[in-house]
């Protein structure tokens, strides 16, 4: 994933991953420049809010407990994935600082 960002490539399957893209265009007087675009969408706080809501709902309603217990592990996995995406984004930002 980090290699893809360093090579400025992204595949369709990785479109939700953080990306760092660079392009160079000649400026005035022949001095080239570089523009860098970083994009990252952090969904961790939304996932955590939904997880907390569903956990409270499961604890207050015995009829929904079984259904919520199926959803909670899925949300936990999504939150872990979100942490990995954030780490990849921070790695991309750090690699840009070294260039």
Helix-strand pattern: HEEHH
Q: Would you tell me the structural class of the helices and strands?
A: alpha+beta
Anisotropy-based shape:
rod-shaped
Number of H- or I-type helical stretches: 3
What's the number of extended β-strand segments? Answer: 2
Distance between the termini: 19 Å
Spatial order of strands in the largest sheet: 1-2
Mean pLDDT: 74
Radius of gyration, taken over Cα atoms and rounded to an integer in Å: 20 Å
Relative helix content:
55-70%
Strand percent estimate: 15-25%
Major sheet description:
2 strands, antiparallel
- Given as residue ranges, the uncertain stretches (5+ residues, pLDDT < 50) are 1-14
Topology overview:
Layout: H1 2-6, E1 19-26, E2 32-39, H2 44-60, H3 65-98
Antiparallel strand pairs: 1-2
Task: Outline the structure in words.
The chain is α+β, with helices and mostly antiparallel strands. The protein has 3 helices and 2 strands; from the N terminus they run H-E-E-H-H. Strands 1-2 form a two-stranded antiparallel ribbon. Helix 2 (44-60) packs antiparallel against helix 3. It is rod-shaped.
Descriptors:
rod-shaped; single chain; two-stranded antiparallel ribbon; alpha+beta; disordered N terminus
Could you provide a short overview of the structure?
By secondary structure, the protein is an alpha+beta fold.
